[in-house]
């Protein structure tokens, strides 16, 4: 029986793909996931020999589109593009999710990643992470940091920083990245962990001061900046975009999709386009991607618990 299943899966994979492939993005157009997938979709279509349709199905913090893929037929024709926040953080915030990302989705590839910038208002008397920590320890509870909302990656990055650096700062949540950046520029808040595109122009215009990047190593777009981990060992927060198939999709199809995504993402024009948006192409193996997901899922659980943040 097992041999028969393997044989059928192999024959099915050999005929794949025989029709258009739909990639569901569980957010409105224009976000980071949308940019990465649309940048690669043309090359991917060429590799697969079939049209690749990008389907934005936003709503319910990414839950609607994600559930649709988790419940789809595991045949390689319906895929999901998602963020680390939606896969490894959201399940801890919303215990009533109608699907389990670790059980119901099969990793295809980690497509691209980008660190956050740790930025402060120029009036903050710190030009390094070490100086900022010293300032926070001298004034416990007096400094504050903005985020794009309770439970957002930027909130949890700030909370993790406070935990690992041994400092107390006040969290100020906003309704989105735009308002948080605006208030930081106005000096209403003192610092934030931010994705790169919204704040880099202000850093280069000296309206904000960047202290570090949150990746494990220096980032190519801002190679002059040190990492937070240089001062706080082990600190690492990346924003990544990955591709998934419904659980149960044949391994041969996952392997084919992984290879074609890697080729599309690593084409010079796609890499250059994503670099302008602050992202680096990763194109990992499914196995490596799965290991990253499991590690991050476990790492965020205690941080979310301490934050007290919930999404109903």
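^ structure tokens above, recovered residues below v
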């Amino acid at each position: 029986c097992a041999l028969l299943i393997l044989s059928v899966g192999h024959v099915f994979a050999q005929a794949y793909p025989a029709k258009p492939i739909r990639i569901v993005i569980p957010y409105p157009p224009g976000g980071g996931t949308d940019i990465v997938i649309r940048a690669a979709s043309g090359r991917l279509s060429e590799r697969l020999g079939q049209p690749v349709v990008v389907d934005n199905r936003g709503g319910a913090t990414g839950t609607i589109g994600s559930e649709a893929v988790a419940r789809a037929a595991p045949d390689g024709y319906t895929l999901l593009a998602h963020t680390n926040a939606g896969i490894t953080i959201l399940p801890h915030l919303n215990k009533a999710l109608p699907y389990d990302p670790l059980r119901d989705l099969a990793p295809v590839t980690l497509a691209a990643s980008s660190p956050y910038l740790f930025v402060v208002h120029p009036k903050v008397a710190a030009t390094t992470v070490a100086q900022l920590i010293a300032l926070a320890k001298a004034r416990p509870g007096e400094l504050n940091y903005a985020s794009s909302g309770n439970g957002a990656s930027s909130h949890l990055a700030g909370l993790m920083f406070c935990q690992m650096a041994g400092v107390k700062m006040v969290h100020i949540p906003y309704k989105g990245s735009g308002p948080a950046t605006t208030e930081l520029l106005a000096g209403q808040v003192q610092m934030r962990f931010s994705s790169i595109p919204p704040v880099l122009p202000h850093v280069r215009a000296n309206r904000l001061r960047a202290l570090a990047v949150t990746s494990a190593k220096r980032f190519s777009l801002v190679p002059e900046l040190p990492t937070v981990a240089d001062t706080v060992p082990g600190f690492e927060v990346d924003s990544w975009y990955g591709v998934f198939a419904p659980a149960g999709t044949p391994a041969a199809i996952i392997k084919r999709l992984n290879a074609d995504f890697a080729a599309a993402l690593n084409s010079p024009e796609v890499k250059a386009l994503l670099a302008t948006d602050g992202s680096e192409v990763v194109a990992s193996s499914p196995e490596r991607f799965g290991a990253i997901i499991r590690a991050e899922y476990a790492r965020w659980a205690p941080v979310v618990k301490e934050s007290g943040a919930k999404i109903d």
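The chain has twelve helices and ten strands.
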